[in-house]
Amino acid sequence: MNLIMTIITITVALSLILALISFWLPQMSPDAEKLSPYECGFDPLGSARLPFSLRFFLIAILFLLFDLEIALLLPLPWGDQLHNPMGTFFWATTVLVLLTLGLIYEWTQGGLDWAE
User: Fold this and answer.
1) What is the Rg, in whole angstroms, of the alpha carbon atoms belonging to the chain?
2) Where do the TM regions start and end (predicted)?
């Protein structure tokens, strides 16, 4: 209990110190030159807020999903040192099969195709 209170105290103190330091630091005053867009010395041709394809978002979500899968499966080699290694490998295989089925479904639905 003493360790938890020490960690909480240090966390709160560090947060307060950083908040106070941010108020004491000089504020940046933006002027017209700093706020103007810079495009190789030319005036900007279009809006900087161009819409992008939703496919990029879907590919990013799929990447995060499979990246998380790999991160969860990385400690798997140490699973054979547990008291029930077959159970560990069974659940890891189950997760791998479910994610593979999800990838196959996404592929067959055309979620990975760039051309429409």
Assistant:
1) 25
2) 7-25, 52-76, 88-107
pLDDT, tens digit, for every residue of 52-102?
A: 777 788 888 888 988 888 888 888 888 888 888 888 889 889 988 998 998
CB 98 within 8 A of CB 68: no
Residue position matching structure tokens 């908040």: 19
For 84, the token pair is 């029930």
> Using N-to-C axis directions, what is the helix angle for 85-108 and 54-73, rounded to 10°?
170
Q: Kindly report, residue by residue over 20-36, the tens digit of the pLDDT.
A: 998 888 777 777 777 77
| Residue 42 φ then ψ, to 5° | -105, 160
Residue 17 CA, distance from chain mean position = 28
Q: Distance between CA atoms of 86 and 28, rounded to whole angstroms? A: 60
- How many residues are given for the chain? 116
Q: Which residue in 66, 57, 58, 59 sits closest to 98, CA to CA?
A: 66
- At 88 the three-state DSSP class reads helix
